[in-house]
Design goal:
About 30% of the residues lie in helices and about 35% in strands. By secondary structure, it is of the alpha+beta class.
Length: about 450
């Protein structure tokens, strides 16, 4: 009985002590001021965007830096809200300690890809699929994405690929550059090996890279990493049709001998286009391809206002420095690039031209439907050029392949110049035959085997 009473007394005294201690511990002097700020920057392994000095500067600029202020007047919510406004900060967490210290923990946004698009856009893409500014100071090495990168394509399709790289140590270390072709096919530049990897479309990229890794392990480790200049992962006919590689090679060779397929060194094997002809005097590429049963579409690469130089002033009868509309577009036959086209046309004579021209409408349809132009004669000069590396990349041919250079001036029925265009056309896809009949010259275009 006595032991129980003593035990109860001890328990009551312990509870009373703890209550007094907790109350005393949590009691803050009315005039307590913040004596220190502890700044913690997380994720510095992958990102070095934000420094402690910058965090301090943000709070000082807003007049809410805690040191020297009364603890009871410091709002941690205000600190968090102000820091979270910064475009490179993902999350901020702030709290006070009984000793008069304010702790600030900042979580940075993690970049997964660096975008350097051909259209001039330059930014990072983070692990949540949002855009980060280019001035961000990234510490980690991230794959660089180049070529024809539209922001919507980057934030949706390339984002998924970037997350895969981030979570896969092997491919994150191996892939140095991702190049987006005009048709959204993908080329990969590895860090190890003197070769390009043609991935094709991003669909099913995990299986494609799994096959490539197996090829690295079983093939390149035996023959050397610089054996091949190009490795294609676009198709896997062996797995698709359950046949051996020897059978596939024999079938491809037979189809090539019959001119059904055609091989392009370093690029791959493609379906040959049957030979047809159409009069180009009256039709542009769009109507021409439609007439022979092929689909045509355009990809606008650039459109802008430019000042006319001496050549354009003379060709289009313009005043010095008169503004002209410049459009660069890629013309496709079905899904294959056929021509790189540049158009120059007066912006004063054809107002809103840059707003009206899109990839969904042909140039001559635009002139006929919106500007009611009655076209007359055209003068076309044809020359042969050799594709440089940039042109070859855009047109999906090899550097050094022949290209036709078409320089065309189109006139209205009254003889007024309408436009000047300059087109580079793949020489392996097009041939031109000049037919003369009763002193009249007619252009005939043939698509080759």
């Amino acid at each position: 009985m006595v032991k129980r009473i003593l035990l109860s007394i001890v328990m009551l005294m312990l509870i009373a002590y703890l209550g007094i201690a907790i109350t005393a511990f949590n009691r803050k002097p009315a005039d307590q001021t913040c004596r220190d700020v502890e700044l913690v920057i997380k994720d510095t392994t992958y990102a070095g965007f934000i420094t402690k000095e910058e965090v301090k500067g943000i709070l000082q600029h807003k007049g809410i830096y805690p040191i020297g202020k009364k603890m009871e007047r410091i709002s941690t919510k205000s600190l968090e809200r102000e820091l979270s406004k910064h475009p490179l900060i993902d999350e901020a967490e702030c709290y006070k300690t009984p000793s008069g210290k304010v702790c600030v923990e900042v979580t940075q946004r993690i970049p997964i890809l660096r975008i350097m698009s051909a259209n001039g856009e330059n930014y990072y893409l983070d692990n949540k699929g949002t855009v980060m500014p280019p001035e961000a100071k990234c510490v980690a090495h991230r794959a660089i994405v180049t070529g024809n990168v539209e922001k919507s394509f980057a934030m949706k399709d390339l984002y998924k690929f970037g997350v895969f790289l981030q979570n896969n140590k092997f491919w994150d270390a191996q892939i140095e550059q991702i190049h987006v072709l005009p048709d959204r096919n993908i080329e990969l530049v590895p860090r190890v090996g003197d070769h390009l990897v043609y991935l094709g479309k991003l669909e099913n990229f995990e299986n494609k890279l799994a096959r490539l890794k197996e090829f690295y392990q079983k093939g390149l480790n035996q023959v050397g990493w610089n054996k091949y200049s190009r490795i294609s992962l676009e198709f896997s006919m062996c797995e698709q049709y359950q046949v051996s590689r020897i059978t596939v090679r024999k079938a491809i060779q037979q189809l090539t001998d019959q001119h059904i397929l055609e091989k392009h060194r370093g690029k791959g094997t493609f379906v040959s286009t049957p030979s047809r002809s159409v009069d180009l005097k009256e039709h542009g590429f769009t109507n021409y391809l439609s007439a022979i049963g092929h689909k045509s579409h355009h990809l606008i690469l650039k459109k802008e206002l430019q000042s006319s130089d001496d050549f354009l002033c003379e060709t289009l009868s313009l005043q010095p420095n008169e503004p002209v509309c410049y459009v660069q577009r890629l013309i496709f036959e079905d899904d294959s690039p056929l021509a790189l086209d540049e158009i120059y046309i007066s912006s004063l004579t054809y107002p809103d031209f840059l707003d009206r021209i899109t990839g969904d409408i042909s140039f001559y349809e635009l002139l006929d439907n919106y500007y009611n132009v009655s076209r007359g004669e055209s003068v076309c000069e044809i020359a042969v050029r050799i594709a440089n590396a940039e042109q070859a990349s855009i047109l999906h041919c090899q550097a050094g392949d022949p290209l036709f250079l078409l320089q065309k001036t189109c006139f209205a029925v009254d003889g007024t110049p309408i436009h000047y265009s300059r087109s580079l056309v793949r020489g392996d896809r097009i041939s031109y035959t000049i037919c003369t009949q009763n002193s009249n010259t007619q252009f005939i275009s043939n698509i080759n085997n």
